[in-house]
Amino acid sequence: SMRLPAAVLFDMDGLLLDSERLYLAAFRAACEAHRYAFDEATYLRVICTPDAEARYILLEGYGDAFPVDAVLARAAEA
């Protein structure tokens, strides 16, 4: 018989796994693949924000023509 775990731990802030550094590299590469220079200040504002707010921040930082969906999809593939 299987026992249920006594507790479950979710690492949402990079405490156990430093996933943020990996995603930063993926986002940088995705920007460059779409011919946009990576803007660290804009990227840092997006961390830990809801999707709708992140979209607004990215468009504000990179301009209205920034292909948000395409860049995010490419970054997620990495």
Short description:
The chain has 78 residues and is an all-alpha fold. The chain is 56% helix and 0% strand.
Topology:
Blueprint: H1 19-33, H2 40-46, H3 51-62, H4 68-77
Helix pairs in contact: 1-4, 2-3
Keywords:
single chain; 4 helices; mainly alpha
Counting DSSP H or I runs of 4 or more residues, the number of helices is 4
Number of strands: 0
Which class of secondary structure composition applies to the elements? Answer: mainly alpha
Shape descriptor reads elongated
Rounded to an integer in angstroms, the radius of gyration calculated over CA atoms is: 16 Å
Unreliable residue stretches = none
* Approximate strand percentage: under 5%
State the helicity in percent bands: 55-70%
Largest sheet: number of strands, sense, barrel closure: none
Q: Helix-strand pattern, N to C?
A: HHHH
> Please, what is the average pLDDT?
91
Through-space gap between termini: 38 Å
